[in-house]
Every structure is written in structure tokens, then in C-alpha cells.
Specification:
Largest sheet of chain B: 4 strands, antiparallel
Number of strands of chain A: 10
Number of helices of chain A: 6
Number of strands of chain B: 4
CATH class of chain A: Alpha Beta
Radius of gyration of chain A: 17 Å
CATH topology of chain A: Rossmann fold
Strand content of chain B: 5-15%
Number of helices of chain B: 10
Number of domains of chain B: 2
Distance between the termini of chain B: 30 Å
Oligomer: heterodimer
Shape of chain A: globular
Structural class of chain B: alpha+beta
Number of domains of chain A: 1
Shape of chain B: elongated
Helix content of chain A: 25-40%
Helix content of chain B: over 70%
Strand order of the largest sheet of chain B: 2-3-1-4
Chain lengths: 223, 270
């Protein structure tokens, strides 16, 4: 099976003499659903950041989608990011853009025509039950609604990999369920690899998944 | 409201740059018109012991545009009653030829000196009067005025450019969130900065329009025109085609270069 992510002796840190992830070895298969858990400050978000190039490996090797992440060029990183969908805990929506334009962002970046983009955005806003809110701006929506918008944006360009950092951290039950359904749907129907960083794996997950746990900078796979 | 305030700050800064450049251009134009007037009024007197043709004068120096003979008839007529005919005929024979030489442009003091020396080398020319001292004073005054305006314009342009740079930094902070989110989805630098460029271009166009309006008002008011007419000069303070296009290009150039500086700076910070 193809590997979307390969880490060999991967060490991550923000400062020189600090270690957040130490000599990690793991790989993630294409099309799999992966949970990464750990206590607060264990480094799970840092690990996720390294997958979309927000932090460079301090040592060892990390390959995402066949691209080496160490000293990656800006153009290569941009290219890679155009094939990744990211869901952040704080949503990271552009406040001065409408919901519709926010969801359209990855499509604008990838150079899709307006007709194609609009059709895709309408479809996704329907999936996240926000079609009636498309003309509103993010601050006008609740937290749960904003995260559903972020979810729609992550799926807009049919990415090969979805990275979600605590996607349901502060959400109500309804919004959480919509998010999990979409993540499961993307994985089962579109064969998109999904990696979710979370405190707790929801009991409602119905599909097979892999589970990695981070403790003291070490990553263990939990059967 | 905040965004409007930012727009106005940049528009005012750009307008100041354009206005100072246009004032320099207008002063340059005024001086050129004044030089033309001085050139028309200015001439060199040459005294020669034989007749010289305009072609001969032209061959002496390329700056010589034309030469006129100064008629002596009037002077001789005045002397008719005071001198005998015989003496008058003798005087007519020995009287040198006087010429007034006009130049193709207003010369520098150095050019006058050079021209005088060249004319004096000619065997037939006995005397040359270039009125160098009075010419020198006018010329130096004009140069001083031009230099003062130039320094003033450069200083204004430098200060306002710094203001524009500061304004753009402010923009960058305002747009930092949007730019970083776009970067997370792989947007290239040009796409992330598109809004900054669009704002810069729009403000450059508005600043040029404001400049055109300002000069239209100045011209309508007419005091500047009146002031120039009193010194015998009539010029276009603002050419609504050439000057407007040049101002727009300057405004676009300044704002785009400064935006590029910000964008390049921010992409290096990433």
C-alpha cells in the first residue's frame, strides 16, 4: 500500500535544545483514517504542523506525499499544501470574506473557474447544512457553524490528505457529529487519508482506524 | 471607516509626492520659458572692420542662430549738421561694421566666454560685447531657484515615501491573518498580496485624479497664471494628458515598489 507519510528518526522542536518529538518512526498508509492522541502539550499539534510544513524537522526525515519536508522550497511547499486540507481548532476563517468565498479559497488558489468553484461550494455548504448562510461573514456564525465552514473548505479541492487539529474541541454535539460524518465520508467515499489530532476518540466512529499516542516525545501505535 | 482612513493616508502621501514632482516640473517649465524669453532678448554686439555675412557668423560657432547688421545711418544723419560732407564721407569709409548676434538658446556664462574668445580670434572682428556680468547674475539666480525647488521636491518625496512605507506596513499587519491563512492552503506570494497590490493601484489612480483636480482648481482660480504673466511668461502648469499620464506612472511606480518591498520583506520573515 502507498504511504502518504513516512517518518524516520523524526525529531521536532521549536528551539535548538528542546525536544517535542524524539526520533519517531512511523508511516501512514494512503486512504487510512488515523487518530493521534496525547495529553495537552505532548506535541500532537506540533506533529500535525510538521505534516503541512509549518514546522521543519529538527532531525531525521519526514516525507509527506512523496515530498521531503526538510528544507523544502516555498514553491514545493505551496504545491504540497494545495493537495492538503487542514481543519484548525480556531477555524482560521478569513473574517472579511463571506462564508462562500472562504470555502472557495482552496479552489481560487488551485485556479478553478468560477463556475466550477461555485458549484462545488454550493454542494459542500449543503453537506455542512449552511447553504442558507453562504452570504454571511464568519463573525456572524456560531463556533460550531464556523468549524463546519472550515470543514467544507478543507474538502473543497478534494485533497489527498486531511489534517484536523482538535476539530470538535469546543463544538456542540450536532456540529461535532456533522464534522465526524464528513471526515468519515471523505475517507470511505473519496479514499482521502484523514489524520485527526484529538484528546478523545469519539465513540461514534464506525470505520476502522489507526491510533497513535504521543507520550514524553515518543509516538506509539495502539492496537 | 478604519479602512477608509488608511486609504486617505496613502492617497494624501501619494498626492504630496505627485504635487511636489509637478511643482518641480512647472518650475522647470517656467524657467525654460523664461530662458526662451531671455534668449530672444539677449544678443552679443560685435564690431568688425569689414562686412561679415550671416553664414560666416554661423560658421564661427553652432550656438549662433542669426546675425543682424546694426544700421549706422541714423547716427550719421545726426552728424550731418555738425560735420562737413568731406569728413562725413571719410567717417563713413572708416566706420566699422556693427552686428547684433542672436543665439539658438540661452547660454551659460562659460559658453558666453568661449563664444567671445572664438569671435575675437577672427581677424575682422575688433571687439565683442557679451554683457557677461548682467547675464551671469540672471543665470545664477535662475540656477539657484531651480536647485532650491529641486532639493525641496526631493525632500518632500523622500519624507512622503517613508510615510507610504509606514502606511503599507500597517496594511501588512491588517492583512497578515488573511495572508497567513492563504499561505496555509498553498497560495503563492503574489496571490496572497493581491489585495495589497489592488489597494496600491486604486490609491495611485485616486491620487492622480486628485492631482488633476487640484491643478484644475489652481488654473481656474487664475492667480498663478496672473503671477506668471506679470513676468511675461505663459505656460501650462499642468498638461492634462502628458502630465497626468506621467503622474499616474509615478504614483503606480512608487506604490507598487513599496508594496513589493513589504511583500518581499514579509515572505522572508515566514
Amino acid at each position: 500500500m502507498d504511504k502518504v507519510i513516512i517518518a524516520e528518526n523524526l525529531s521536532l522542536s521549536y528551539k535548538e535544545f528542546e525536544t517535542i518529538i524524539s526520533k519517531a518512526n512511523f508511516s501512514i498508509d494512503a486512504g487510512s483514517f488515523v487518530f493521534i492522541t496525547g495529553a495537552s502539550g505532548s506535541g500532537k499539534s506540533t506533529l500535525l504542523k510538521s505534516f503541512y510544513g509549518a514546522i521543519e524537522p529538527r532531525a531525521g526525515q519526514l516525507m509527506v506525499g512523496g515530498v521531503k519536508m526538510h528544507k523544502i522550497s516555498t514553491s514545493k511547499l505551496n504545491f504540497l499544501r494545495r493537495h492538503i486540507g487542514v481543519v484548525f481548532q480556531d477555524y482560521k476563517l478569513i473574517k472579511e470574506w463571506t462564508i462562500e468565498k472562504n470555502v472557495m479559497l482552496p479552489l481560487i488558489i488551485s485556479g478553478y473557474t468560477k463556475d466550477v468553484s461555485s458549484a462545488q461550494v454550493q454542494k459542500l455548504l449543503g453537506h455542512v447544512k449552511l447553504i442558507h448562510q453562504s452570504g454571511k461573514y464568519p463573525p456572524e456564525l456560531s463556533g460550531g457553524e464556523q468549524q463546519r465552514v472550515a470543514m467544507a473548505r478543507a474538502l473543497a479541492h478534494n485533497p489527498i490528505l486531511i489534517l484536523a487539529d482538535e476539530p470538535t474541541g469546543n463544538l456542540d454535539e450536532y456540529s461535532s457529529q456533522v464534522i465526524w460524518n464528513l471526515l468519515e465520508g471523505a475517507n470511505t467515499q473519496l479514499k482521502t487519508t484523514v489524520i485527526v489530532v484529538t484528546h478523545n476518540i469519539p465513540s461514534t466512529i464506525m470505520i476502522p482506524y489507526k491510533h497513535y499516542h504521543i507520550e514524553m516525545g515518543n509516538i506509539h501505535e495502539i492496537s | 471607516m478604519k479602512s477608509l482612513k488608511n486609504h486617505i493616508s496613502l492617497i494624501i502621501a501619494l498626492f504630496t509626492v505627485l504635487f511636489s514632482v509637478q511643482i518641480y516640473v512647472a518650475v522647470d517649465r517656467t524657467i525654460a520659458a523664461y530662458e526662451e524669453r531671455l534668449k530672444n532678448d539677449y544678443s552679443i554686439i560685435v564690431v568688425a572692420n569689414k562686412t561679415l555675412t550671416p553664414a560666416e557668423f554661423k560658421a564661427m560657432d553652432s550656438i549662433i542662430e542669426r546675425s543682424d547688421v546694426i544700421a549706422t545711418d541714423q547716427v550719421l544723419k545726426r552728424l550731418e549738421g555738425e560735420m562737413s560732407k568731406k569728413n562725413l564721407d571719410l567717417l563713413k569709409l572708416t566706420l566699422p561694421k556693427f552686428y547684433r548676434i542672436y543665439l539658438s538658446r540661452f547660454p551659460t556664462p562659460y559658453e558666453i566666454e568661449k563664444l567671445q574668445k572664438r569671435l575675437q580670434k577672427h581677424a575682422a572682428i575688433e571687439r565683442v560685447e557679451g554683457y557677461a556680468q548682467s547675464h551671469d547674475t540672471v543665470y545664477k539666480l535662475m540656477l539657484l531657484f531651480k536647485d532650491v525647488v529641486q532639493i525641496f521636491s526631493i525632500s518632500i518625496a523622500a519624507v512622503t515615501s517613508l510615510l507610504i512605507l509606514k502606511e503599507m506596513r500597517l496594511w501588512q499587519f491588517q492583512h497578515a491573518d488573511r495572508m497567513s491563512i492563504m499561505a496555509l492552503f498553498g497560495a503563492p506570494v503574489w496571490l496572497r498580496s493581491a489585495v495589497l497590490f489592488r489597494l496600491a493601484i486604486v490609491d495611485a489612480i485616486i491620487a492622480t485624479i486628485v492631482l488633476c483636480i487640484a491643478f484644475f482648481v489652481i488654473e481656474q482660480y487664475g492667480w498663478m497664471d496672473l503671477l506668471l504673466r506679470t513676468v511675461g511668461i505663459s505656460i501650462d502648469l499642468f498638461d492634462y494628458v502628458n502630465d497626468a499620464v506621467r503622474s499616474l506612472l509615478i504614483a503606480l511606480g512608487v506604490s507598487i515598489i513599496l508594496t513589493l518591498t513589504i511583500v518581499i520583506g514579509s515572505s522572508e520573515e515566514e
